[in-house]
TrEMBL record, chain A:
GO terms for molecular function: ATP binding. It holds the Pfam family ABC_tran. It comes from Sedimentibacter acidaminivorans. This is Ribose transport system ATP-binding protein. The keyword Protease does not apply.
Amino acid sequence: MKEIVVSMQHISKDFSGVKVLKDLSFNIYKGRVMALVGENGAGKSTLMKILTGVYLKTQGEIFLDNESVNFSDTSASQSKGIAIIHQELNLVKDLSIGENIFLGREPVSKGKRIMWNKLHKDAGYWLDKLGLKENPRELVKNISVGKQQLVEIAKALSIDAKVIIMDEPTGALTPAETDKLFDVISDLKKSGKSIVYISHRLHEIFEICDDVTVLRDGELIGEESIENLDEDKIIEMMVGRKLSEQYPRIETEQGEEILKVDNLSNEFVKDVSFSLKKGETLGVAGLMGSERTELMRSIYGIYPAKGSVYLNGEKIKINSPQDSLRHGIAYVTEDRKANGIITEMNVRENITLSSLELFKGTLGFMNKGKEEISSNEYIEKMSIKTSGTKQMLRFLSGGNQQKVSIAKSLMTNPKILILDEPTRGVDVGAKKEIYDLINKFKSEGMSIIMVSSDIPEVLGISDRIMVMHEGRVSGFLNSEEATQEIIMTLAVGKDVI
Amino acid sequence: MNYLKRILKNKPLIVLIVASVVIALLNPRFLTWSNIVTVLRQTSINAVIATGMTFAILIGGIDLSVGSVLGLCGAVAATMVSSGMNVVLAVLIALLLGTFIGYLNGSLITTGGLQPFIATLGTVTLLRGAILVFTQGRPISTGKTPASEYFSEIGTGFIGPIPIPVYIMVLVFIVAYYILNHTRIGRYIYATGSNEEATMYSGIKTARVKRFVYAVSGMMAALAGILLTARLGSAQPTSGAGYELDAIAAVVLGGTSMVGGIGTIGGTAIGALIIGVLNNALNLMKVSSYYQDVAKGIVILIAVLLDRKQKSSR
Amino acid sequence: MNYLKRILKNKPLIVLIVASVVIALLNPRFLTWSNIVTVLRQTSINAVIATGMTFAILIGGIDLSVGSVLGLCGAVAATMVSSGMNVVLAVLIALLLGTFIGYLNGSLITTGGLQPFIATLGTVTLLRGAILVFTQGRPISTGKTPASEYFSEIGTGFIGPIPIPVYIMVLVFIVAYYILNHTRIGRYIYATGSNEEATMYSGIKTARVKRFVYAVSGMMAALAGILLTARLGSAQPTSGAGYELDAIAAVVLGGTSMVGGIGTIGGTAIGALIIGVLNNALNLMKVSSYYQDVAKGIVILIAVLLDRKQKSSR
Amino acid sequence: ANTQDQPETEKPAENQEPAEEAKTIGLAISTLNNPFFVDLEAGAKAKAEELGATLVTLDSQDDSATEISNVEDLINQGVDLILINPTDSDAVKSSVEAANKAGIPVITLDRSANGGEVVSHIASDNVAGGKLAGEYIVELLGGKGNVVELEGVPGASAARERGEGFNAAIAESDIVVVAKQTANFDRAEGLTVMENILQAQPEIDAIFAHNDEMALGALEAIKASGREIIVVGFDATDDAKAAVESGEMAATVEQLPKEIGSLGVDTAIKLLNGESVEKSIPVALQLVKK
Ligand SMILES: Nc1ncnc2c1ncn2[C@@H]1O[C@H](COP(=O)(O)OP(=O)(O)OP(=O)(O)O)[C@@H](O)[C@H]1O
Ligand SMILES: Nc1ncnc2c1ncn2[C@@H]1O[C@H](COP(=O)(O)OP(=O)(O)OP(=O)(O)O)[C@@H](O)[C@H]1O
Ligand SMILES: [Mg+2]
Ligand SMILES: [Mg+2]
């Protein structure tokens, strides 16, 4: 018999008049892992934020151990034993790992003095448990995003809550770390804790979850035990229709070599050389911290680097993103919020930001009519879900923000498109749409570099795969010969052949 | 109907209208044509500075040096005019000087990597010293030459029933509105203020955008200095001291966010008018000097409280 | 060896040391005991204000009202002392008043949702008016009562060879250091300044942290007002005008980032000393008054340029 | 209660610089942003050059705390005598006492000190000046009419004293002060405030401004309004004297700042040469009119 710990009843939520959650109910059971799935913008994070007191619900009731509760802020939910790992990293970068883990719960002596040694020792315990080898006194800003994610998890675990909510905890984790996390989750389950697990990676759901709740457009579609479900079934519930094959890689005629990177070196990467053909999709795999992002940013002109870059056989010099775009190399960043989109600007302004010279009008005026038409074209072409060109980006769901970010790069009409983690945090439906887009660009003769931590995705989409390890290229693989195992071997720095 | 709604949502405008109605009821002279003209003319200097300040605040910066730029450029203009130099040339040189100082501010911030507050604070100290050295602590009269007569028209003249500084103010507003809303650089200013990194990743040289913005701010301060000097017929060594605060107040009263990325020139115009009306009314109603600051502080706080951004709804 | 390295990395300290050595070489009087004592005593008032300002800047805010809080609390203290009130009580009341005003600032910012710059700017105007109303525009002498003699010790007295204000300054530094580094609220101040949202998600009431910080800033301003009034034997209605800028300069010279989250009290101490030494040295070396501001502006800009945060390497 | 036992330090100057050598005189001046004080300093400087003395001027920037810092620095510099032009009579007390403690004689200029030992005070009286201006306005208006008073920085001593003298002078007459507003000693503010007052007051016969800067600003406003109003200022700056000369301003009170500065240095040298000096040296006030 399942024992209900948390029951959310008839929850509704408006954001300035827009209904985001519509009279939905949600249960969390003792000692079980509840998966919460749904497309981008379905309302998963919002629902959990209501449970933890970040947002105030518009309607409905929440019961914790059959008692009606109403949390006005995070400290209230925390004190009742509910912890949450937010989807977006929420760490204080200028503080140490240990300070972050115990922020708000620092151990103090009788004299109200913080006991630093105890704090860091306790922090070390949780880091060990998650297999994170970092000094708890290290500042968070000095560790990689993946490690930061683990710190975030350690923080939630250390609260010793009875309900732990994990909103896409594995987005930045390697398979090994993910496995470690799953071990921890099993332990938690055994000790009677309850977990809500939100993820767009459905295989994970089948690995660790006991029950599944599916949301669509803020409505409850259903709650089922995992035994009664399979992947296709879940997808169907999520998107309301069947999806065809997930990785629809297409073969295209590959042309001449268009890009050649020769011995690129800087503080991040060492002697990186590779080439790219017209119409080719190059997948870039590697563990976190393998400096794939840094490599792409170095090519894009964010970081200075030694070495040469050839475009169509001609040596080019790229000192800034501006140079790069002028040469037809566009980059879609991995960190949308930080440097991909401008949340306070609308869809149109975001899409055209890199290509405003296309809309020169008379007398130095911008031709806003033309701008409007063009952005609408892209909204349609990429099926961006928005109420219009004037919608502020912060009101778009993650997947749609991602599409806007890609649209912005596309509008510059690039010959080479670099996509860094293009599907991170994007739902299955939108993922598929992005893959379709990649294929479409490819068939139009564009060359694509796709950095991704999702190995099945790399395998599914790429024509060729480059694997990186600690700033160096550790090998190239053809799509035929590549397997998950070979990629992992190269990624940890071992030679395959 | 729709217009009415938009007006009702525009809190600064409502503050201005309500304040004006109340003042007019208390003192009928407030709404006489000559007083309206007076208020507009008095507002013009702060409005011009505030326009430049709007640019600076929109990119998430601030320009504390405007008062001292005003002082220096005013003094330089006065010196040139009194020496009989061609007025147009003198004005251009003064504007260029202001633009140049603004550009240097921008370079301190971009190339130098300084935070705008501290960079322009340093400039203030330096320029105030420079003004003292330049003026030797004395006012500089524009003199009584034909050139100076011509120059003084800029500050005191009328075209029809409206003073020239008012035309200049309106022109400045229009050009600024045009730049911010209908040109690329305007878009880049908003983008830089909202998310500098994303703007940079989009292939825009944000450093260049910033230098442009501070140059504009410097130029506007210089223009205000010219207006003030022309109006007074002389430049004081202390001219412009504290003007940055009035300008910032106008910008913020107009609804521009000090975090950057959000704000309009129309708002700034209203903000400057609120301050102008307030100063005028306090004098008209003979509020004792001791109480003027109290009244001003309260009005400013109430106005910004009314217009505060709704805390992101939770 | 290790210590040397740490010192070499501490740019503000190096600026202070190099400047002191150069000045000492140019003018041997600089390093006399009596001059050192003078510099320290002169620094104490700015240092105390700057300590409170450090708190405000660490949370990513700013407190422009410190100068006017200083003025008001000084005037209130003077009035109480001259009326023969118990000095300890008078000091406590003045401190409490400053703390309360600071708390109100904090509430304007948190509950009122105003940006710190504009909230405290409003307070400045309001308080300057309040001071005028309170003092009726006249200086308030602490009088010639036994209470006032006792009171004036706070500003003019010595314990051993060292002036009392210097002890107070050092005590303030120590307490502030302890709070920032060894108590929870100290951590929350850094956390709030570095990432307010994450801090809030960690279950910390950041609004409360902010109110605490502005209350501290107000209290420090009041303490500075007491020191100044005790030193001068009277409170001027214009006391403290512009002091916020010196305090901010000290904080920034000390390496604290105006964005929040990064900075130390030790840095602020050094920053305040740099300003104190600079003022003293310009006087000792008989730099013309007209050129002093120029020199000061240049030194401040150079110092912050040296210390500017390396543009984040990523 | 003398706990202020400054530690034993070098007694300033005397041993290092024999009496025959050039004397160093410190001048702590309240501000150098204002032509009046600039003139005062210029007078002092000229006299010092003439007498072969060195003058070190420090600007207190109208702030009492800066003033005491400057005086302390002058003491540490080892000047022979300090001329203080106080920012405020009360607040300067501790500065004077500090100099007394160091054995350095003090002469006050323009404003007096309400404490400490001052060898000599050289000034023309602000209250008397205000009175002079008031009496002249009474005379011009024949004892009745509407006047406007433009006040200086609220709380500044010059504003207080000049206002006091002026109001005392008109108290007996039928003159009414119809508006009394601050323009902070600033010309631009003098202009705007006067513009506003002109809007509010249909009848104004005369205006008294606490300094010439405001008077000149007000004058611009009056000129633009086309009205006829008597303007009386204070300080007799060059600009104001020119305006009086041309008939635009009725009068300005001259305090002879150069004379004050010059007399200050003169008295200082006399004192240092062992001559005796007067405790109080008045400098004539005069009304500059056409
Ligand atoms: N603060 C807010 N203001 C306005 N709208 C919001 C806010 N937060 C979320 N929304 C909207 O609410 C809807 C649900 O968002 P939510 O973040 O809960 O989706 P999600 O299911 O977590 O999606 P994802 O899988 O992309 O994380 C979206 O349409 C989003 O744009
Ligand atoms: N803010 C930072 N400052 C300095 N170094 C950093 C910072 N963030 C990350 N690093 C370092 O940069 C390296 C690369 O980090 P990152 O995890 O982004 O690499 P990656 O190969 O792009 O992996 P992924 O894309 O999966 O995140 C790591 O060694 C990390 O320690
Ligand atoms: Mg989500
Ligand atoms: Mg990466």
